[in-house]
Amino acid sequence: MNAEDEKILQPKIASREVTTHILKAFGLHMSKKLGQNFLIDAGIVQGIVDAAEIEPGEKILEIGPGIGTLTQGLAEAGAMVTAVELDKKLPAVLAETLKGYDNVRIVPGDILKVDIPALMGEGPYKVAANLPYYITTPILMALLERHLPITRMVTMVQKEVAERMVAKPGSKTYGALSVAVQYYTDPEIVLDVPPRSFLPAPEVDSVVIVCKVRETPSVAVKDEKRFFRVVKAAFGQRRKTLSNALKGGGFPKEQVRDAMERAGIDPTRRGETLSLAEFGRLADAFAEE
Ligand code: SAM
What we know:
Helices cover 41% and strands 18% of the residues. By secondary structure, it is α/β, with parallel strands linked by helices.
C-alpha cells in the first residue's frame, strides 16, 4: 500500500466514535494533568484550519497534537506540520493515526523547553493549537516574546483567557496579558466552542482566537524589557494607584514621580486604565533618568 492509499483509508479522527476507538485500541487514559481534552467535533477542526488560512506547503507549528485530531485537518489542508507533544505515550499512537501523511513531523518534548527557534529555522511559521489550558499564558508568552518568525497564531483557549487577551483599558479583564498580546499582535475571537466539542468535556467554555502577528509592535518603545517591567509592576498590585504599584514593583520613588510627570500621567490613576501608548510613554520616560 502506498502513502496515498493509507491516507484514503484513514477515517476523520474528529468524532466521538473514532476517538473512543483509538483510546481503547491503544489502552490510553486521558490525563487531566496534561490538559488532555481531545476535539471530537469535525466542524471545529475545520474552523481552526480555515482560520489558519493555510496555503499548501506552508509551515505550521502545532502544540500538543494529542492523537492527531487537528494535525490531520492541518495536514489535509496541505500544511507542513511540526507538532510538539509532551505525553511520551502519544508519538507511537500518532505514527499509526497519521500513517500516510508524509507532511507531518512529530517532535516529542515540552513546548516550554524545546528549542523553538531551532525547530523553526528561518520560518515563516503559523501556529495552530488546541492548547493545554494549564499552561496557556506561558506558551503564548514563550511564542510572542522571542520574536520568532511567526505570522499568525490560531489557538483554542479558555473563553475567560481569550477575553483577557482582547480586553481594552478600563475593563476588569484588562491586564498584563492583554498588553502583551496587543503589543505583538492583533487578536480576534473567531469561534465559540462548547464543552461538548471535546472528550472529556471541560468544565469551561472555549473559543478559537486568531492573533495576527504585527510586523512592528503596536507601540514603539525604546526598551521592550523595561516596557514589560513597567506593565508587570502596574498590574502587580491592581488595587493600588499606579505610582504605588510601580514603587511596590521596585522602581525608586523619585524616579516614579519624575517619569510620571514627564509622561504626563496622573499618579493617582490605576494601571488598568492606561492604554498601550500610555504604558509606552511611561516606560520611555523612565529611560530619561
Ligand atoms: N490537539 C489535540 C486535539 O485537539 O484533540 C489535543 C489537544 S489537548 C487540549 C492538549 C495536548 O497538549 C495534549 O495532547 C497534551 O498531552 C499536550 N501537552 C500538554 N502539555 C504540553 C507541553 N508542555 N508541551 C507539549 N504538549 C503538551
